[in-house]
Design a protein that fits this description.
This protein has helices at 14-30, 34-41, 48-66, and strands spanning 72-78, 82-89, 93-94, 107-111, 116-121, 125-131, 157-160. The chain is an alpha+beta fold and 161 residues long. The longest helix is centred in the middle third of the chain and has 19 residues, at 48-66. The structure holds calcium ion (CA). Calcium ion (CA) is lined by residues 103, 120-121, 154, 156.
């Protein structure tokens, strides 16, 4: 289904297939390739029509995304745990983020004893960092490799343990 991602088996969990399901439905409705839809979702391609259809699907699934985890993490568009958000239970991984969130997360809230790993790129690639504590403002959380840059509006894939 996602032929350019041979590593996806190690994280084949319901959350990822939820997005695949969304991408597939949008692709079917618009008669385009699902991989094209996922590229638009990751911000690698621009298509207003696809973006609009994705936003509609996300609206339908918002309850699932927004369910507050028992043990897990929520991710917010704005600092101090504000703005649009989605949540993940411990054990979930997102090889790419829900539509509208790629490179747009500004705060991270941990519930109970979860640990989050953040990645600069999709598919758990690029610079990464881990935390067991909430991060109310990612502008003050610096990259390990470059202290002049922060994690704000940078996260592109996530694992929660
Ligand atoms: Ca990124």
């Amino acid at each position: 289904m996602n032929g350019d991602n041979p590593d996806s088996n190690m994280t084949s969990i319901p959350s990822v297939s939820l997005f695949r399901g969304i991408y597939n439905r949008v692709a079917k409705r618009l008669a385009v390739d699902p991989s094209y839809v996922s590229r638009v979702a990751r911000g690698e391609r621009k298509s207003l029509v696809v973006e609009k259809a994705l936003a509609e699907e996300v609206r339908i699934h918002r309850e699932i995304y927004r369910r507050r985890p028992d043990v897990g993490v929520c991710f917010y568009r704005d600092i101090n745990f504000r703005g649009d958000y989605f949540c993940m239970e411990r054990g979930m991984s997102y090889e790419s983020l829900p539509p509208g969130f790629n490179d747009r997360i500004s705060s991270v809230r941990i519930f109970r004893r979860a640990e989050v790993s953040l990645f600069n790129d999709s598919n758990f690639r690029g610079v990464s960092a881990a935390s067991r504590e909430s991060i109310p403002d990612l502008r003050y959380w610096r990259l390990p490799t470059d202290s002049s840059r922060s994690w704000n509006d940078r996260i592109s894939s996530i694992q929660v343990r």
